[in-house]
From TrEMBL, chains A, B, C, D:
Its EC number is 4.3.2.2. GO terms for molecular function: (S)-2-(5-amino-1-(5-phospho-D-ribosyl)imidazole-4-carboxamido) succinate lyase (fumarate-forming) activity; N6-(1,2-dicarboxyethyl)AMP AMP-lyase (fumarate-forming) activity. This is Adenylosuccinate lyase. The lineage of its organism: Bacteria, Pseudomonadati, Pseudomonadota, Alphaproteobacteria, Rhodobacterales. GO terms for cellular component: cytosol.
Length: 436, 436, 436, 436
């Protein structure tokens, strides 16, 4: 985790304070459940809640851990200092450290998911706003980086909206995947604790009880979670790449917002670099790099080994923090992206009318000109555009062989942009689920 | 794709014959839709179906492609040879090659998913059968490869069942992800073809119309698909690793089935290698290796570039074929796995009764012995087991300090396996959704 | 492996014929070594060479394998049919299958490396030729996709040359890494065969004896090999991306060669897609995807398990075949790349002279104008270029405040391209090791 | 980077203090070089060195950066506060930020490499010591986890030594790969600075001048560097896995050192978990996960984009810190690994003598018994061992058909462990380059 690529809300989910608070809640709820089935006295269970609003002293816990060499014991020792030894001895009964640690990790992932979902909402809102704003802003569609047929800037935003909306659905599923907890003992048999404790704690913590666990929650869940984050990151790179392309000096159809006061902006007006989207490209790689180790983590020896732990200590916070930051950076870029419709038109007309050559070719054929002749006619006029910078429509209108086959109106019609935008509303309705 | 790691059913989905048949169906359904809106004559649309039961000549298509350098044109030329030029000229009108190619790829992925789902069903059935068979077969649970507490072999199978069942749900979602088609033209604007054609074709081919496409279907869908296959593969490795561990000479709690006639089986009865599960470990890596390029494929330049294509030509068939083979190999291994319950017991008792030392320690404490003394009592008897191979329970029963605190019955109870298996039925009910 | 992305020379290295020929040579050389130390009769060792020029019948070997279920035994059985049973019984004595299989794999990787090296030589030659050809072809250097300072096209080629030359050195090292063989027995102790046999065979096969093996050659060697191929692939993508950028409609500084006869070339002269370099981008991903499984293959249980085998059966041929094809495709693209120097100049002058604004700013400062004033002077003239399409130099020369600080000659000098190209020869000398 | 998985020496290489000190040295050496060619006054160049022993105030630099939004300018401003404005204005002349930043990154990677190399030396020393210590400690070699033939523990250590020694050579090469610097300007043309400055600075910083750069040093170098770290990490996992296997309860041939005072050690003597090697398995994944983004970083747009930067800010420190920690953790594990030779013997004899069955089979054949009979003889005795726990040699000696073919001495000889260890010295001489 790098401070410059992080937001405080997400960082705080992974703080020691948050972690200990979750530990505490799990232990306290477990005591309630233990009391309910008569394993521990009800008054002691109730007394555990005395620490509800008492902040834990992280430094003190660290101090104890330096002696005990065991994080959960250190925490319980500190808890005892707050709630008293008489009550503390009923805490954690029949539980193993993993019950607490693993359930906590999933609580954190769920909370991280909620933040990520809200980041995605911001991205979606920005994309939708810009899509409607530029629904009819015509620009050239490009396949292979080469001009193909006209489209609109709104369709580009709408396409990204649909992609991010799919990602949001995926993340909701991924959140659901890891929203389970386990309090099932050293090998998952509930030998030392009743399954009702697990059920109560999970319900209170907003989780489902893991149907079958083995000291740890099975890691296919986490693999799916991080794989999903990897897909989201790839979509971020996809959008970032579009913007980087649009900002190229030769294209200049859009620019990342550059505040007027920014030094150098007007002495070198051409040198505004798309550094935010370039950065997003790199951040996408950082998010994606967690996918492979998360997949490798699925295989554990027998009832569990701890090989996955160091991986998760890293990718748990780092990946969610980076993705959270990236989502908000992306939203900011989209919200403020400066669009240049006039440059879009200028680019489309770089080879004056040539992008319409295929429509003309088709029209000639449909008008009864044979394939070879149609091709020859288009070609001789197209080459004048390509080599001499002529205007395609003008040339066609001046070519008697062409006008013999097509009327002026027919030729004009082939250059009508409305032909290409006639279904934009239909597509918008599909994407945004509204009549446009 | 390696023949030895493939099954014919899956291979045939990716054959040229299958591919051309899908192309044909897409074109024919598109003609129907075009006829319905009056773009082409109904009789010609009907006539396209003349090729319905005529096998395509792949060699002939290849021959034409060698000349035209274009696969779709080669196919259409061959189709014309079957349905006649008069009808053929109405085929593919207003469509681009990608409309056909991309929709076909998704049809193939959907069909591949169906085969994979049936492979998963076989794995699930095998796991469930073996789980119930060994529901009460006690064996030692191991954390870190080290004996922890007793569990049952049935719980191990049930755990894998739950994991595979999650994977099946994931695959159903992944199949849904790629079950879309697009017939939207060169940049996705439907400039040359009505959206109703896309809707009709998709419905007929068992797909949903892609809400917004851009010559190609967006690649986040495929990324999610292959990422899901990667998770499934990781679970296969997880199960394979368990079996490899069980078959180790020193453990020998299970063996892959070894047919009695297999050479060498009885001259070297100790040398039966878990080669199928080792192979599954490698196959898992092969499936997983498609995840990263699938993620990298998400980013395309503007309305599309073709960088994703070579990747998909490879990972489309290879990954589904390998996973399909792996699922069936895994199912076979589980179905026939030879389990040795007696070895499980012998292993559990390797350090005679020592795995119960923690229960005894707890019992002493609960009986009022202070922590230091409890620890000292357990330790002195445990060390006799560890160093001299004594029996733990026998030693405890002979230790007056122990028997002063715990009755014989209480000591005996600590060695009762039923303590550990008492919730097996509960867990089975959770996993298999039935009263056990 | 996909036929369309493969060259016959590399494919043949991985053919069954090649494999069996290598198996044979290993066995025959091993017999020589066994005879030299008196383990088998010299005349029998000599007689093994009778098969030297006899082609093996792959179908026959497959037929035998279908019965014996063991590939090496099937081969030896077929060999016996050629050299006679009396001699055949001395073949393979004291050896294990892995001795043959693993050494063969490395022989194949070495031969594949030689082909790859020759592919790299072709790429290097093409890059060097084009570098010298365009040593002085000025174009704008771009950082962040935005115009920065002038450079030359030759420097771009030279930069790629230096990168590929590093890759060649890496591949030579990688080839050296896997140029070892092992004939050391079931666990690598030479219990059943003398180390001198390994030494002789390796020497004859162009390998070094693996200092310590364990049935198999350690897989860190192969991991390093495939990791190196992954780096080379990434450089291919780097070069391919540059060309894709150059061919963009708005940039058009270069185009992949498009044969004049190619259909459509002149009716749609603007629509020439950089499909070869897009394809190379995808192929790079395919090569890279072998890196992770190759790294995962390093860990084998104890003296060996066979998890690595299925991975290598796939990535051995597939990765080398794909990279070989990619290198030659890249070489072809570079050799025939059509460069448009006039478009390079036009692009550089898109914002007429504006890329020189920083030099002017510096010159003003050095001429004693204070920082704020310098900035203001540059800015007001730059904005005329940016907003009104004026020419920067013309504006500066017409600005009395500027000309008060800088003479006409000084201003002219700031627009001299020679300032930027003065060290091109120095750089060429560094890269190509020659006085330019 | 996680504090618990880091060592201070490596962390300090990546501290702000270290970074600023390197920036300073680069700037100061650049001034010397600029003075040497008369670009700046010699006395000012000399005056820059006034800051040589003055610690930089990181907080102060951060404070300035909060205003200037530019890290290098912030540093130069702080430097001016130390060396005075008159001298400071000569610093950084003609340079771009990347000249400083990129060269610094490589200085840090070189220093990190040196630390890693010394970690590897510690691992190598430990492996060598343990190899000689257990050169003749016999244990069973296992293929597929199944007993194969005897080997020695020393050979296992020697094998790991050879692997790590290869890794050390690879790391030396990788260090060499990134030991270059660049001071070549905004697009690498040296337009604003003489190449001699780059040469002088690089020489002083222990680097080579990058022959051709383009604002940044080409990223294939870094890709190769991180790929190499990935291979080393995989070898660490390989060794860790061997130890985890050895410590399994059923195998117990070795244990990670467990200090006598460690709580619980003797009350649960069976429960000593190989947590350090499990942790190393996870750390290996963390190191490896940098390989793919490092490969993706190779492709930069034109003369550079900044997509690689965020990746490197993370993987630069994190990967080297994790690997450094892992190497020392591994060294510690090996140095103190508790080996149980008696358990090795016991394991080997688990199926009493059965691992020798293949030698007996071969001996019978060589003694003239035909293949079927030999097989039958071995089989019937082997099955007594397998099924009834008999001793193989005893059974063979009591089987008249066997003793008719083989003398007692011949039978005894087949069970001689010396047969398997006779080439251990030869192998040690190969690995350690010494007469054993």
């Amino acid at each position: 985790m790098i401070p410059r690529y992080s937001r405080p809300d997400m960082v705080s989910i992974w703080s020691p304070e948050s972690k200990f608070r979750i530990w505490y809640e799990i232990e306290a709820h477990a005591c309630d459940a233990q009391a309910a089935i008569g394993v521990i006295p009800a008054e002691n269970a109730a007394a555990v809640w005395k620490a509800k609003d008492v902040p834990f002293d992280v430094a003190r816990i660290d101090e104890i851990e330096a002696v005990t060499k065991h994080d959960v014991i250190a925490f319980l020792t500190h808890l005892a200092e707050i709630i008293g030894q008489d009550t503390a001895r009923f805490v954690h009964q029949g539980m193993t450290s993993s019950d607490v640690l693993d359930t906590t990790f999933n609580v954190q992932l769920v909370r991280a998911s909620d933040l990520l979902l809200s980041g995605m909402d911001r991205v979606l809102a920005a994309l939708k706003t810009r899509a409607y704003e530029h629904k009819d802003t015509v620009r050239i569609g490009r396949s292979h980086g080469i001009h193909a047929e006209p489209t609109t800037m709104g369709l580009t935003f709408a396409r990204f909206y649909a992609e991010m909306d799919r990602n949001k659905n995926r993340l909701e599923k991924a959140k659901w995947e890891i929203a389970t907890g386990a309090i099932s003992g050293a090998v998952g048999t509930f030998a030392n604790i009743d399954p009702s404790v697990e059920e109560h704690v999970c319900e209170q913590m907003g989780l489902r009880a893991e149907p079958i666990s083995n000291q740890v929650i099975p890691r296919d869940r986490h693999a799916m979670f991080f794989a999903t984050l990897g897909v989201i990151a790839s979509s971020i790179e996809n959008i970032a790449t579009e913007i980087r392309h649009m900002q190229r000096t030769e294209v200049l159809e859009a620019e990342e917002f550059f505040s007027p006061g920014q030094k150098g902006s007007s002495a070198m007006p051409h040198k505004r670099n798309p550094v935010l989207t370039e950065n997003l490209t790199g951040l996408a790689r950082l998010v994606r790099m967690s996918v492979t180790p998360a997949l490798e983590n699925v295989t554990l020896w027998h009832e569990r080994d701890i090989s996955h732990s160091s991986v998760e200590r890293t990718i748990g916070p780092d990946t969610t923090i980076t993705l959270d930051f990236a989502l908000h950076r992306l939203a900011g870029v989209i919200e403020k992206l400066v669009i240049y419709p006039e440059n879009m038109l200028a680019n489309m007309n770089k080879f004056r009318g040539l992008v319409m050559s295929q429509r003309v070719l088709l029209a000639l054929t449909q008008a009864g000109v044979n394939r070879e002749d149609s091709y020859r006619l288009v070609q001789r006029n197209a080459m004048k555009v390509w080599e001499q910078g002529a205007d395609f429509k003008t040339e066609l209108l001046a070519d008697p062989e062409v006008t013999a086959a097509l009327s002026v109106e027919e030729i004009e019609e082939k250059f009508d942009l409305g032909y290409h935008t006639k279904h934009v509303d239909t597509i918008f309705a599909r994407v945004f689920g509204e009549s446009a």
